[in-house]
Design goal:
The structure is a single chain. With about 325 residues, the chain is α/β, with parallel strands linked by helices. The chain has two domains: about 5-110, Enolase-like, domain 1; about 120-320, Alpha-Beta Barrel (TIM Barrel), CATH 3.20.20.120. About 30% of the residues lie in helices and about 25% in strands. It contains twelve helices and 14 strands. It has helices at about 60-65, 70-75, 80-85, 90-105, 110-115, 135-140, 160-170, 185-195, 235-240, 250-255, 255-270, 280-290, and strands at about 5-20, 25-40, 40-50, 120-125, 125-130, 150, 175-180, 200-205, 225, 245-250, 270-275, 295-300, 315, 320. The strands form three sheets. An eight-stranded parallel β-sheet has the order 5-6-7-8-9-10-11-12. The chain is globular and about 60 Å long.
């Protein structure tokens, strides 16, 4: 596609049901940026979530996107976008909007344009935010429809109590333990030693990204998954020395285009795949869902954490993400939608 494209940028606010806490802090709403690209009567949209961990804010990401208004009007393509903006939230929103716009113009679903298999039903993990052990155990009991629980950890001495309380409440549940960079090597080793024999699918990003090398000293058989340490395919050679799994999030890769490249390259390094998300709406989940068919773990529960999602968003049956086409993103739709 090489044609004049108009740009619209919208800041949206989505309250979180009950709040959400990780090791870096708490939030009560998901603030997203939605990009709409229009050309020849068709429109495509994409959503991103600016993340302060990477130096992003609503204002900075909107400003990044705004710099492309002229280039888009002059015929910027999705391929050219990859070189103009760095990986991150701004590029993600524009890249996903490009894919959706192409689906409308060519009247083909994105999965077909990307030469992928059509989406199939997936089981998503459900996230438990940090609280005291008893409250997290009760939250796990309420989430009986979810066989996989993503457990946010604080990196403190209560984490072992949290994990054991959840396992007691839900003995058949598989757990993803997410440290969000909250541990040091010593506390991680202690954790691993204390939770031997529990049903742990992976331990995600336990150490700060800048001390990943210390993972080589950890004695554990648990699968270690890179999140904050991983952005694009350029990171894989380093990641593969310490981790056995990677968490692909489009807000880190800078969109579906690089995420597809990352997914393909990860196989060459024998890295297992988790497909993850920020706390956001179905407009963010739908592009990520295209990566899920060959993923070991799927963590696309963002809309389930919100008080309300888009009316035409993904459909969930408990932990099951249905494979029904959504006209919110990625499938041909009427021009009025």
């Amino acid at each position: 596609m090489n044609t004049a494209i108009s740009l619209d940028i919208a800041h949206q606010y989505w309250p979180i049901s009950g709040g959400f806490r990780i090791s870096r802090g708490q939030k009560t709403a998901a603030e997203t940026i939605v990009v709409t690209l229009q050309s020849h009567g068709h429109s495509g949209r994409g959503e991103c979530v600016p993340y302060a961990r990477y130096g992003e804010s609503i204002d900075s990401v909107c400003s990044q996107i705004e710099t492309l208004r002229g280039p888009l009007q002059n015929g910027l393509t999705r391929e050219q976008l990859q070189k103009i903006l760095p990986a991150g939230a701004a590029r993600n929103a524009i890249d996903c909007a490009f894919w959706d716009l192409e689906a409308q113009i060519l009247q083909k679903p994105v999965w077909e344009l990307a030469a992928l298999e059509p989406p199939i039903e997936q089981v998503t993990a459900f996230t438990l935010s940090i609280s005291n052990p008893d409250q997290m155990a009760m939250a796990a009991q309420r989430a009986t429809d979810y066989p996989v629980l993503k457990v946010k950890l604080a990196g403190d001495q209560d984490d072992i109590l949290r994990i054991k309380a959840i396992c007691s409440a839900r003995p058949n549940a598989q757990l993803i333990l997410d440290g969000n960079e909250g541990f040091c090597a010593e506390s991680l080793q202690t954790l691993c030693d204390k939770i031997q024999g529990l049903n742990i699918a992976a331990i995600e990003q336990p150490l700060p990204a800048d001390i990943d090398d210390e993972l080589s000293d950890i004695d554990t058989e648990f699968i270690l998954c890179a999140d904050e340490s991983l952005h694009t395919s350029d990171d894989l050679a380093h990641i593969a020395r310490m981790y056995q799994m990677i968490n692909i999030k489009l807000d880190k890769t800078g969109g579906l285009t690089e995420a597809l490249r990352l997914h393909q390259q990860a196989n060459k390094f024998d890295l297992q795949i988790m497909v993850g998300c920020m706390v956001s709406t179905s407009l963010s989940m739908l592009p990520a869902l295209l990566l899920a068919n060959s993923a070991k773990l799927v963590d696309l529960d963002g809309p389930l954490l919100l008080a309300k999602d888009h009316d035409k968003g993904l459909q969930y049956r408990g932990a099951i993400i249905t494979a029904k086409p959504s006209h919110l993103w990625g499938y041909p739709r009427r021009r009025s939608e």
